[in-house]
Amino acid sequence: MIVVTGATGNIGRPLTDALVAAGEQVTTVSRHAVEAPEGGRHVVADLAEPAGLESALAGAKALFLLLSGDLHAAGADPAEIIGRAVASGVRRVVLLSTLGVATRPFGATRIAMRALEDMVRESGVDWAILRPGGFASNALWWAQSVRERQVVAAPFGDTGVPIIDPADIGEVAAACLVDDRQLGAVYELTGPAVITPREQAAVLAGALGSPVRFHELTRAEAKAGMVESMPAELADDTLDILSSPSPAELRVSPAVERVLGRPPRSFAEWAARNVAAFR
Description:
By secondary structure, this protein is α/β, with parallel strands linked by helices. It is 41% helix and 15% strand. The chain has helices at 12-21, 54-57, 78-88, 100-103, 108-121, 143-149, 166-178, 197-208, 219-226, 232-243, 247-250, 255-260, 267-274, and strands at residues 2-5, 26-30, 41-44, 62-65, 92-96, 126-132, 151-155, 186-189, 213-217. Strand 1 (2-5), helix 1 (12-21) and strand 2 form a beta-alpha-beta unit.
């Protein structure tokens, strides 16, 4: 049995699909009840309360750990999650980290994530760590404005990074969970090419078959919108990267192709699969 946390998200869904397709039994974990995967089960649990994971971890051989906001929630103790997993008999942990651990290591969120990476390495079980950069699915922030006004509004319109399709992250995670050759590695994950927000708007227009106008926000305008769904510190961190990506943040990684035997999907491929959200 493989336990997948964050199972209802952009990474957890394709990861679960890949594992089921490979014949693995899967226990999905999320805060809200959803349909169990084929041949598996679903457990409702909040990772900010690790005791609730006990039933999910029972009998599990591997764990995909996606903490996101749970890492920073009041009273959160990610070390307890890892400890409970090991105590329950889990022998493999694949951790979703972030590229910022390597490229901007001194922010509070990255310091906390790096500490969690170290816990996984020192846990005594097999491990792999995934460090993706920006997600193609962040374009869903624009879905309402595209539907209602045919507008993509974003800051730093002509500055890009090599964003990655979350489905590729999920498939790499699946490989790490089932293939011993991928263990003991840290994978920096990106898409196939740098793409700017203005270029993303043009790609969305092509997928829709109708015009989409790009409107450039100021940094202050962008932050005001972002803090509605994330801590102000994380919004500032994100805007720092989007405004002035470092050479390391612009670098296209070979990791997806190395693990999956194919190039990473383009933003155009992501847009084609998700175009309904923008109609």
